[in-house]
Amino acid sequence: MKEIEELKVLKGKAYEHCVLFVGDRLKRIQHQISELEAALTSETKSSAGDKHETGRAMIQLEREKLGRQLSELEKTQLLLSKVPKNRNSETIGLGSLVVTDSFTYFIAIPSGVFKFKSRSVYCISAATPIGKLVFGKSVSDTFSFNGKKFSILAIQ
After folding, report:
1. How many angstroms separate the CA atoms of 91 and 100, rounded?
2. Successive 10-residue mean pLDDT values, the chain, 156 residues
3. What residues pair up with 143 in beta bridges, in sequence order?
4. Are 96 and 155 in contact, with CB atoms under 8 Å apart?
5. What is the rounded distance in angstroms from the CA atom of residue 41 to the CA atom of residue 36?
6. Can you list the alpha helix ranges (DSSP code H) found in 1-147?
């Protein structure tokens, strides 16, 4: 029973990590967009007109790139909002914490490694190679990745 409670806490912390990851990226992108817009409005017409236009074009390209990143991040945020927080299923799906004999995964969004106490949790998307391999599997099932065999020990 203690192991189940620990996994519930770990899963909750992994979800919080994903929320913070998205929030931090969102703030960073919005800040960069604000800086670009300020640079665009402060760009004054100089005697070298081509230089001025080139500078404006570069700023505009960067703003478009950030706009695409923001759009992707909004999709990620939408996916995260659909992750069931209290998923408790016999099979692995979106929102599952998966403990294998080597690693622990949280199936939600790709947000890197999260460390809590002595454990590391890899927050991954269901669309990643590992996510695809474990999706629908149960405790004691196995899967192979990069020539190594893994056993599923627990699902929360």
Report:
1. 14
2. 89 96 96 88 59 79 94 95 86 96 97 95 97 97 97 96
3. 150
4. yes
5. 9
6. 2-42, 49-81, 129-134
pTM: 0.86
Reduced to 3 states, what is the DSSP secondary structure of residue 148?
A: strand
Q: How many CB atoms lie within 10 A of CB 9?
A: 13
β-pair type (112-116, 104-108): unpaired
DSSP 90: S
* Of 13, 59, 56, nearest in space to 156 by CA: 13
3-class DSSP assignment, residue 138: strand
Burial of 14 (0-12, 13-18, 19+ CB in 10 A): buried
Instruction: Give the C-alpha separation, 62 to 32, whole Å.
Output: 9
Tokens at 143, concatenated: 């899967």
Written as six digits, the tokens of 137 are 């599997």
Q: Which amino acid is at 65?
A: K
Contact 123, 111 (CB under 8 A): yes
